[in-house]
Design goal:
The chain has 468 residues and is mainly α. It is 79% helix and 1% strand. It contains 17 helices and two strands. 51% of the residues are buried.
Length: 468
Amino acid sequence: MADLRTLRSFAGLAGGETVARLLAFIATLVVARRLGPELYGVITVASGILLYLTQVADGGIELSGVPVVARRREDLTALVSATLTARIVLAVALSAITAVVGVTLAPQPDGAVLAAYALGLVFVGAGTRWVFLGLQATGWVAFARISGELVALAVVVLAVQGPADLAVVPIATVLGAGVAATAMFGGLTRLGVRPRVSRHWALGREMFERGPRLVGFTLLGLILFNADLIYLRLVSGEREAGLYAAAYTFIAFAANLSVAWAHSVLPAIARSPAGSMERNAVYARALALSFWAAVPLAVGGAVVAAPLMTLVFGEAFGASSGTLVVLLGAVPVAALREVITAGLIASPGGERQLIRINAVSAAMNVAVLVPVVPRFGALGAAAVTVLTELVRLAMALRAARRAGFTGLPWGRFLRPVAAAALMGGGLQLLAGVHVVVQVSAGVLLYTVGLWVTGGLRFRSSPIPRLEI
């Protein structure tokens, strides 16, 4: 059985993340429909560049801080105070530099949009999500995330009416980030942590020493995440980038849930001795659960991709359904890799392995993208993304075995694969039916498939139990 505290932590984190992402998705939908593919491409490219700056402003603490807090819970006020002070100073400087460069040197309107987004880097530096995750107190994180996305959505719905309102989009994002950061700050007092300005940065030495390597790992990962989008923007123009970004929205949603699950598992892995049966049991079950959730999304999404894109984004984005079908192949692969990544972060020296994995993968990704995208466009970029994820998974598995983890629990994958195949076949028979009906039928068919294969049992309780 998985650690119940870990499951509760994930339930709070993933539940909040799901609602927050749904709100963000609605905001994205409003922006895409009201601005059109061209300006939507500008927004996605600028926000994609901001992701790199966000990781620098974070300093790697979002990852390195979780296991530190999980292991060292005494005098958290001093630790958090020193860490936040250093990060906020860095974030303010980075925000100012980015704003100046965006307004004066970057092409417009991309540069102005990036400058507006950069104002939110200050709230990244003030972020305390890592403290809550380390303590497995994820309920407040969910509240803060939802509050922030609600504010951003409200601003978008009320103020973005057409292309002339392009600048409102980054402003809404910054306001939402500010609300979320402020809410989490308030939640710290409930945990007995009261941050203050502190110059004792040495208290966070373990995090700051690991931080740069984890920033490097994440930056390389971002190259894999959006190098295709940025390159498409340069080679094929704003419209092609906008269409690709619309298809990738679904992939990003699934990826964020995978990250939430991996972060929920991270404290439990960090607390267990290296090479122990307990650690490997948590690790193997986390891998299985991530795959059980991801495979139906990939299979079902591929079947309903065309009507789904048209329903959600409108006729102007219908051409990106083929791209979505290809990209969905990366969902279960990435879900497994995120759990493995959490295991390596919890292991001494694991960040070095992660940097190596992402460096090799990023180099391969760029080398293949350069000749493929000009010839095959968005479909080529999507295929390269899936190939890169497979390479990353293979390398991560090898590193995990060296760190004392077991291999993939292949036997636990048979039931969800069979259930997903049943679901896919059933959805094919429902072609032409409204996509909402198809999605609902897909959930039912996958559940039935798990029951038929023995993966879902009711036994003496009305609450079903997964046989993983």
